[in-house]
Amino acid sequence: MRALPAGWGRLHRAPVTLAVAVCLLTPAAACSSPTERRTEGSPTAAVSAGALKWGACPAPDAGTGGTPVKRDPRQRCTTVRVPLDYHAPDGRHLSIAVSRIRSGAARPRSLMTGQGGPGSSGLDLPSQDASALPSRVTRTTDLYGLDYRGIGHSAPLRCGIARADRTEAAGIPYPAADGRIDANAASARRVAAACSHHAGPGLRFFNTVNIARDIDRIRVALGLRTLSYTGISYGTFVGQVYASLFPGTSGRVLLNSVVPPGGVKAAIQNKGRGVEDAFGGFARWAAARDSTYHLGSSARAVRQTVLSTVRGLNESPLPLMTGDGLTGNLLLEAEEALLEQQGYLPGLAALLAAAHDGSVPADVTARLQFGSVFPDNFFSAQDAIVCNDSVWPKDIGGYRRAVAHSAARFPLTAGSPANIWPCAFWPVAGSDHPPKPVTHGPHNILLTQNTADPSTPLSEARRTLRAFGGRAAMVTVEATGHGVAIAEGCAGDAVADFLLSDSPARPRRCAAAR
Fold first, then answer.
1. Is 281 helix (H, G, I), strand (E, B) or coil?
2. Can you give the pTM of this predicted structure?
3. What is the DSSP letter of 417?
4. Choosing a second label site near 175 at 20 to 30 A (CA), which of 187, 245, 348, 467?
5. How many other β-carbons are positioned within 10 Å of the β-carbon of residue 307?
6. How far apart are CA 91 and CA 352, in angstroms?
């Protein structure tokens, strides 16, 4: 079973490792202000296209916790200088790491690839997307990637966050087994304090608006009239802001698995609906294999088995080799990770069956990696971007009430989508809040969306589609999981037609890829 591609960042506070680890259970399986709403003109280029010096890319940065990618030998790298603060362009500058794979076409198109997350490096996305995009696109398109500001090789932020606040289990702030959020609030307060003390005075300028401006600055440095863009998950929000600030120069904008207007905060708060959507598909899959997993012979029975197991483990946690206890909420956190891809379902079913029987094997519990510690830069950059993009409530009592309400409405996520983040204690106000989607401009935006996505539900993609008015269309795929497969098939054809044409985007509905 393959791991998630490097660009398929989940919308929470840690990279995916649980999915890979738990599939070892089944070794035989294939496992804002008016000014901010105006579109912006292009900035004066800091360098000319001819001044960019392309060379070997820096070593892959383990400091962001991304999935290792085998680099295409054609990939080369450079840096582009951008202002820390675009409202003070003569002040401090940052160096943004940029990568490229040239297609060799005589008159190539140009496509910037945007990372999900946020938090992981995107410098190797051209190598990744050389196989993830339709071949007729990559044959004629130069692919670009970048580390967003604050990440990897682009002025990385490091808050000095304590190891205990950078674990896999801390990645999604699930409440305690009894529903309390005191530990979550204490962790959030510590993270915010660490960033206040160590991130430096420029912390407020690490946000999505400035990332979009950086991409346009790269376009100018490359000497391009337009620079098309594709992103997945959080990368779709970067694309929305890019298309809104620069409608005339953003080329074709492809958004795969769509974060709604409002950004990561809005996406997190809607994950309860997404997990419910994806769990329905899993429950039907497991019910059809009841003779193997014994979770129930109907989708309803599978759901009842899971929820009863969660209640039992919250009352009496199952001991793990790590010395921790497998609570029901920790089991739900693992379930959320494993709903990300269809190939993870055998591992999820095996884990749930073992937990229900109270007999998770010791060697498997050692591999669950709930205690794995992830890099400081990943958490530091993610929290900076998410917290600087939006205004978050500060009242802890309000979060307690919201968590209880969310848990009652969406029990499969136990209230985590409403839980507290470091943003409640964030020490600075972001320099720029993202604009609302701009409806005037070219019809140059295509959304691709699975019908049952645990991280970015279909309902929120539809909201984004409506927000862009006539500028956008959507390809809807009858599939479960986060990230639409667009290399081939119905969705691949739609994507290739869109990226290789200047015609308006067209809607399409596709069956799941076989």
1. helix
2. 0.90
3. G
4. 348
5. 14
6. 55
Segment (H or E) for 479: strand 472-480
Query: Cα 136–513–510 angle (5° rounding)?
Result: 85
Q: Phi and psi (nearest 5°) for 154?
A: -115, 80
Query: For 76-102, what is each residue's pLDDT tens digit?
Result: 999 999 999 999 999 999 999 999 999
Whole-angstrom distance, CA of residue 245 vs CA of residue 227:
13
Would residue 91 be called left, alpha or beta, if left means φ above 0 and alpha means ψ between -120 and 50 degrees? beta
The secondary structure of 77-138 as a DSSP string is: EEEEEEESSTTSTTS-EEEEEEEEE----SS-EEEEEE-SSSSS--TTHHHHHHHHS-HHHH
φ/ψ bin of 489: left (φ > 0), alpha (ψ from -120 to 50), beta (otherwise): left
3-state secondary structure of 13: coil
Q: Reduced to 3 states, what is the DSSP secondary structure of residue 297?
A: coil
Assigned token pair, 441: 């401009």
The SS3 of residue 503 is coil
pLDDT in tens, 35-50: 333 455 444 334 444 5
What's the Rg (C-alpha) of the chain? 22
> How far apart are the C-alpha atoms of 17 and 361, rounded to whole Å?
19
**Range with lowest mean pLDDT among 23-27, 77-81, 141-145, 294-298:** 23-27
Let me know: does 75 contact 124? Beta carbons within 8 Å: yes
CB-based burial, 457-488: b 16+ in 10 Å, e otherwise: bbebbbbbbebbeebbbbbbbebbbbbbbbbe
Name the nearest CA neighbour of 498 among 445, 454, 433, 455.
Answer: 445
How many angstroms separate the CA atoms of 172 and 268, rounded? Answer: 10
Number of other residues whose CB lies within 10 A of the CB of residue 320: 18
* Neighbour tally for 164: CB within 10 Å: 12
Contact assessment for residue 372 and residue 164, using Cβ atoms and an 8 Å cutoff: no
- With 0-12 / 13-18 / 19 or more C-beta atoms within 10 angstroms meaning exposed / middle / buried, residue 74 is middle
Compute the distance between CA of residue 208 and CA of residue 426 in angstroms, rounded to an integer: 17
3-state secondary structure of 253: strand
Q: Which two tokens stand for residue 457?
A: 């539900």
Q: Give one DSSP letter per residue of 193-251, joined into a string.
A: HHHHHHS-TTGGG-SHHHHHHHHHHHHHHHT-S--EEEEEEHHHHHHHHHHHH-TTT--
DSSP class per residue in 15-41: -S-HHHHHGGG-TTS----HHHHS--P
C-alpha dist (Å) from residue 213 to 200, 207, 218, 336: 21, 10, 9, 33
145-149, 208-212, 338-342, 365-369: least confident range: 365-369
Structure tokens at 479: 């599939």
